[in-house]
Amino acid sequence: MALAYELRCRECGKTYPNTPLSICDACFSPLEVHCDLEAARGSFTREKIAQGPDSMWRYKALLPVPEDYVPATPAGWTPLLAAPRLASRIGAKNLYIKNDAVCLPTLSFKDRVVSVALANAQIFGFDTVGCSSTGNLANAVAAQAARLGLKTYILVPSDLEPAKILNTQVYGAKLVRIDGNYDHVNRLCSQIAERYNWGFVNVNLRPYYAEGSKTVGYEIAEQLGWRLPDNIVCPMAGGSLITKIKKAFKELIALGLVEEKEVRFFGAQATGCSPISTAVKTGADHIEPQRPSTIARSLAIGNPADGIYAARAIRESGGWAEDVSDVEIVSAIQELAETEGIFTETAGGVTTAVTARLYAHGRIKADDLTVTCITGNGLKTTDALAGAYEVERAVRPRLSDFEAYIEEQTEDRAILEGASVR
Amino acid sequence: MALAYELRCRECGKTYPNTPLSICDACFSPLEVHCDLEAARGSFTREKIAQGPDSMWRYKALLPVPEDYVPATPAGWTPLLAAPRLASRIGAKNLYIKNDAVCLPTLSFKDRVVSVALANAQIFGFDTVGCSSTGNLANAVAAQAARLGLKTYILVPSDLEPAKILNTQVYGAKLVRIDGNYDHVNRLCSQIAERYNWGFVNVNLRPYYAEGSKTVGYEIAEQLGWRLPDNIVCPMAGGSLITKIKKAFKELIALGLVEEKEVRFFGAQATGCSPISTAVKTGADHIEPQRPSTIARSLAIGNPADGIYAARAIRESGGWAEDVSDVEIVSAIQELAETEGIFTETAGGVTTAVTARLYAHGRIKADDLTVTCITGNGLKTTDALAGAYEVERAVRPRLSDFEAYIEEQTEDRAILEGASVR
């Protein structure tokens, strides 16, 4: 049975049968998966989706896999949480958090894209997969490939601390240190993928990989009771996520699952690597590459592949982009944890700090229904908090000493006074 | 409307109305929550549960909360995964993993018990909560209390590395370093709870707290299609979890949700802290306290409160207990990650290594339907892997150099040879 999707060039529109290819051979522009909405119409209904699994695979009918594809690992279907306590701190009234800090299986939204990429790696018959990454992407590839019994190679620049990737090596992934920067590593990945039967999720599998991001948009709409928000705030690294959430919303409107609505898209970057937000703010029609210098490593892509498409999506929607300093990132990580009990990585600090600024500057109205996307878990970037908390004196294990200690602390004195003594 | 649960002494059976109390004033034995199964019969049905939320609160009717309780945070409802690749390595044929390494919101099964404890903290009107812990328990209390707007105190022995609790402090929890060991800290917690209107989840809220563990058992049964497994392998720290899973199964049988069946319970400890497994192996009728010395810190309770009940549950079921060395723990962490893509903390290494040994020694038959309980995430104990992977030489970013590097590695040579060169 013919598949309901194919590859199509984003610029010249040339179409290709499904194959591990990411660049158009006619105009060298990126290829994208085009799903046949009409073919999906019958199986992509609210009712059928509700009967699906508690994972992103409930949306299988609009993902580039065969109808009968059976996923090996649950992924996605993360909580959409009302955030009243954060909202009151930043002047919002109707704020929700899409919490991919707890995305299955490896605690970042990369699990979504990797799930779709590895499904296609199997379809294309690859026995070996890989990527160039040290972070969330490497985690997701190594873990999901292990469960599928695929061999995994992770290529990284040799100047990176090996300690950073213990939690990827544990899955049995083979780490190869390359004597060069990420540009060198990525070029080598392309050559290996070209020559051998290997699938690099973000190189020759990229068009399929990227479709996985649509599930963030599908989930937000379904979890809001099949309606779209007024605003989406989204972190930007390569710039793909924001464009795919927009694509997901368009598909839902076309299929009549949600009412038509102009959602405004807002992009978040770290000032230390802000090529996309700079383009949006200056109105530039191209992306000026930057040399990254920020603690938000998972967003530190100086020359973002989808940057121009992200900037375009933001402008066309009437949204905006902002970037924040490393200091703001750390305090936003703390503020999100203190108010909503969500511990996010540095990228989530970026998104939270940018969200606060968008409200403060009136770019987002207080009453708007806004969803901010948290994309990774704080346990992966605990370095960011080093030195954030001072070590206080030890207290002797006696009630009187404890009370005296509490008394010392003005902020806490009220508690004992307020406490009803039995 | 009267609540369908009360406190009852495990030994003398004396009953108490619901109140923050954990010890019987008549015989000084531990109190336990007793739920009125008859009262729950109408609302605890397969159909009503299936209509409930994708969280442990789908079992609310058998948890100690009012019928109208609305949870603030999704918790539990973790994947039950078939583990074919691990199974084939250890000689199992029908092995499942209950994966609380990805339990919401803080990635350990402690989220389940803390959810129920904090629900009751609110019911009892506590504005301040706490616990004595540096690990999963502190994480869960700090995160969930933050979202509820409760003030949190974490009391810890002063000799602990402050770095270990950054990921708890981030939630705004107040860390108090006590100049003593855990016994001192726990005694102080009891005194504070006694004197002030504070709720310590594992002290004065302990009976309610402990009920949360039942949800592991409910989920396993529902995820198996409303049937019970032949065997459960469960890590043991204080010993409570294994007794509560057994209690959950008994309740499901009594309510007719599953067929009656004798499930065998198997306990897992680290040899460096094995008071319960030692009691089971020696047939002792009491628990001999130990001074813990193991990397499995989350299981390192030398004098387990529920140890004797755990040992009893294991013996009565026809099960067994085992303990494993720190070296076995680390290699089991790697084996679970390499085969199933699950990265667990040291406690999960204990459970996995013990599971393998139980099959090897014939304590568990290959064909049995066995569920092994993974209770926490490996990102919390990455130290355990320090030095596990050697740093190899850097490779120049050229295809020929990469091929030469792969050639060097006998284990990998086959891959290129096998690869279909385009």
TrEMBL record, chains A, B:
Cofactor dependency: pyridoxal 5'-phosphate
Pfam families referenced in this protein's UniProt entry, alphabetically: PALP
Claim: Phosphoprotein is one of the keywords in the record: no
Secretion signal, residue range per the UniProt entry: none
InterPro entries: Ser/Thr_Dehydratase, Thr_synthase-like, TrpB-like_PALP, TrpB-like_PALP_sf
Enzyme class: lyase
Known EC number: 4.2.3.1
UniProt KW keywords: Lyase, Pyridoxal phosphate
Entry superkingdom: Bacteria
Modified residues (N6-(pyridoxal phosphate)lysine): 110
A GO BP annotation: threonine biosynthetic process
Domain Tryptophan synthase beta chain-like PALP: 75-376
Coiled-coil residues: none
MF terms (GO), sorted A to Z: L-serine ammonia-lyase activity; threonine deaminase activity; threonine synthase activity
PANTHER family, per database record: L-THREONINE DEHYDRATASE CATABOLIC TDCB (PTHR48078:SF6), THREONINE DEHYDRATASE, MITOCHONDRIAL-RELATED (PTHR48078)
Record-stated family: Belongs to the threonine synthase family.
Name of this chain's protein: Threonine synthase
Species name: Silvibacterium bohemicum
